[in-house]
Design brief:
The chain is α/β, with parallel strands linked by helices and about 500 residues long. The protein contains 19 helices and twelve strands. α4 crosses α9 and α5 packs across α9.
Length: about 500
């Protein structure tokens, strides 16, 4: 059970940054738990921030989205620092010297996945050969996490065996349907490969524990993220197909998304399986409880993604190519939260209450006093004549204390890019509202946000650096290779920027 003492975490004015692990500086082509991660933590603390928000840390699959991982429990093996494995003797230093990814400013996922996984597996083999399997720490880890680790490791080996294709459409039926005899024979003949994936999760756990401990000692709390849905091609669905709605052919149908709105005339077709809430209730939401236990072991606070989907889910026929013709179907969020409140301190949760809200969603959020979210960029809306609505709930004068406020999130353009996308009259409204020049829009929005009444303010690092659209992290509903790939450069996190932010946090009473 999560400690009740943590209820005070959201009680005072604080500020933080939004920066995912993959975006950290490192010589490995992707952010890791290496030296640069600790230096970044030092910089965040030096700037006066006490919150560090990251995205989901699971192993990403097709499209590289952190919100569609191969597992809701496992860690992304690509975040493991190779230099640490060299120091521990699981790799030769020459191995790391030969691994020199070409991309530095953005993650080249295909290259990193192909090359780094080979080195990680070599390190895991070394661990196994050196009798690491008898190490007390490893045995304890495997025993404690076995409820997800066993199926995840087996899933990854099977996935490799069948070309990384979707298990529910491309695997032989005996493996897709988890035939006991077939799986038993496969496990017997692939023990080393399965063990390797478990070892890699152990490496991840050890490095994460050291990283989190260091961050916490600096006075920084980590904010994790809980995707409301899981990926169809994941160990979650393969090991627990009964928890998700399927048609008579056993296919995941319907699937998830959101209906058409101002941002998309056809809605967003996410395609994730949707929960069978009756089955979840029958099992007392055990899978969800285990999921949050795992995530709270990694972070201090958790943001519940697509919170409104806990009251009703926009369910779309799996055969549809857009999200236009779905239906709102009641979900079991109220009962789920009643169960979760018996296990966790609900004061450590944040509700992503964006999108189509209704009274039931607001009631669920407020019943547990969960902070909601406000996105500054969303506050600027215009009618056909270009007039702005200054009473909009996403503008600072209309915020209240129990909210986490952002200039934008991982799904938005950077603030500089967003401003550039506005037409001339809309820009004039923004400049008048912020009382600044075009060059100072991002800085002015950050300042106004920090001086607001909202207790928590989170700034994407791209906005701290006043980056343009080229630094955008994600284009929703897109599998663009550029998605999720942006990285900060160590040289950009300067002492001058840290001092300026610390001064601003001081006078805005967030230090």
């Amino acid at each position: 059970m999560q400690s009740k003492a943590s209820k005070s975490l959201l009680a005072r004015r604080e500020a933080g940054v939004l920066l995912h692990i993959s975006s950290l500086p490192s010589p490995e082509g992707i952010g890791t738990f290496g030296e640069e991660a600790f230096k970044t933590a030092d910089w965040i603390a030096k700037a006066g921030f006490s919150l560090w928000q990251i995205l989901p840390t699971g192993p990403t699959g097709f499209g590289n989205s952190p919100y569609a991982p191969h597992s809701s429990f496992a860690g992304n093996e690509l975040f493991i620092d190779l230099a640490d494995l060299c120091q521990k003797g699981y790799l030769e230093h020459s191995d790391c010297d030969k691994y020199t990814p070409k991309a530095s400013e953005k993650v080249n996922f295909s290259q990193v996945k192909a090359d780094k996984i080979l080195l990680l597996k070599k390190a895991a083999n070394s661990f196994i050969q050196k009798a690491g399997l008898t190490e007390a720490g490893y045995q304890e880890f495997v025993a404690q996490e076995g409820h997800w680790l066993d199926s995840y490791a087996l899933f990854r080996v099977l996935s490799e065996r069948f070309g990384d294709n979707r298990w529910y459409s491309h695997w032989p039926k005996e493996y897709a349907n988890r035939d006991k005899d077939a799986l038993s024979a496969f496990i017997d003949s692939h023990q080393t490969e399965i063990e390797r994936w478990k070892v890699l999760q152990y490496f991840f756990a050890l490095q994460w524990q050291e990283f989190r401990s260091y961050v916490n000692k600096l006075g920084i709390k980590l904010i994790g993220d809980v995707p409301i849905f899981v990926a169809g091609d994941s160990a979650d669905t393969w090991a627990n197909p009964h928890l998700f709605k399927r048609n008579t052919q056993g296919q995941f149908d319907p699937v998830s998304g959101v209906p058409p709105d101002l941002f998309s005339s056809t809605g967003q077709l996410w395609g994730n399986p949707v929960y069978d809430w009756d089955e979840l209730e029958r099992t007392h939401y055990h899978w969800w409880v285990l999921r949050l236990q795992r995530l709270f072991a990694l972070t201090d606070l958790l943001r519940i993604d697509h919170f409104r989907g806990l009251i009703a889910t926009w369910e779309i026929p799996a055969s549809d190519s857009t999200a236009e013709f779905g239906s709102w179907i009641d979900a079991g969020g109220k009962e789920l939260f009643e169960e979760l409140s018996q296990h966790f301190d609900m004061g450590c949760l944040i509700a992503e209450d964006l999108g189509l809200m209704d009274d039931e969603v607001i009631e669920l959020r407020d019943t547990y006093t969960l902070p909601g979210m406000k996105i500054f960029q969303f506050g600027f809306t215009f009618d056909e004549d270009g007039n702005a609505d200054y009473t909009h709930e996403f503008l600072p004068p209309n915020w209240s204390e129990n909210f986490v406020v952002y200039t934008g999130t991982h799904d938005n353009d950077t603030t500089a890019g967003w401003f550039e996308s506005l037409n001339k009259s809309e820009r004039e409204v923004v400049l008048n509202y912020l009382d600044c020049s075009e060059e100072e829009v991002t800085k002015a929005m950050i300042r106004m946000m920090l001086f607001s009444v909202a207790r928590m303010a989170i700034i994407p690092v791209q906005d701290l650096l006043n980056k343009d659209t080229k630094a955008r992290f994600n284009y929703p509903s897109s599998c663009n290779e550029e998605n999720w790939s942006w990285r900060v450069q160590a040289r950009e996190l300067t002492n001058e920027l840290a001092k300026r932010m610390k001064d601003l946090l001081t006078i805005s009473a967030r230090l």
